[in-house]
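Pasting as-is:
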Amino acid sequence: MNTSETNFTDMPNCSNKGFPPQVNPSAPMPNITHCDTQAVGNEKTDGDAQTTGKPEATEQQPLLQLKQVSIFYDNNAAVRKTSFPIPKHKITAIIGPSGCGKSTLLRAINRMNDFIPNVRLTGKILYNNQDLYSKNVDPVAVRRRIGMVFQKPNPFPKSIYKNIAWGPGINGYQGSMPELVEQSLKQAALWNEVKNRLHDSALSLSGGQQQRLCIARTLAMQPDILLMDEPCSALDPISTAHIEDLLFKLKSNYTIVIVTHSMQQAARISDYTAFMETGHLIEYGDTDQVFTLPKQKRTEEYVTGRFG
């Protein structure tokens, strides 16, 4: 990585044990300014949505903060001036009907949309108060700190062991690889099921096991944040319950943002909920409040099943 670029591996709250340092960890972080000339400057950043509840992140500095984020495919806006905080060590669910922009917004957080031609973003996404879209930021470093699990399990056509070890290996991990593999599989509640078959193909696992393997693979990179794009949509109810139980345990060490079509799942597992429709944030707040006492009529109609 170019040493002139912002290095997220030395930011606060990042453990990265075993990964080689890229810059002097005692050096101060550079000031970062947004390079997009269309970015919002001093505009109001609380958006048009009704924001309720008082998450920890609004009382202290949030781990992630979306400020007037708009995302365009060519000239078509998929997300419009969306702002809300994402509290540390909590689960934030993004819900809404198909096509509302929730997955596009999720992918923007770790710059996965960079791979899609003609996509542009205005506004700011701040991580530890650093603008992820600054010209000084290395998107690869962003993705190391902000991992992602996709809708369908996508294990590599390699052994279970190599699925976990491959990412840390190519990133210069210097610790004990067998210990890292074991730790990651334990964190993903998969170790006891695979510890005697680590050199079997990952493709031999069940769908639910493959998804937990993908979670373990992400955890092996020691991120701060886990992004999950409908991780249970292709799973059976038993596997879904395993993943949900796992997320409860993981949030003590990780900040989790999950996109889900299942309102029941969002109500069960999340601490905060953002409801989106046609690219707009309609309401954000404490999950119990959003589902039981929504402030917006459109939110009430969605969570009670009147549309969507």
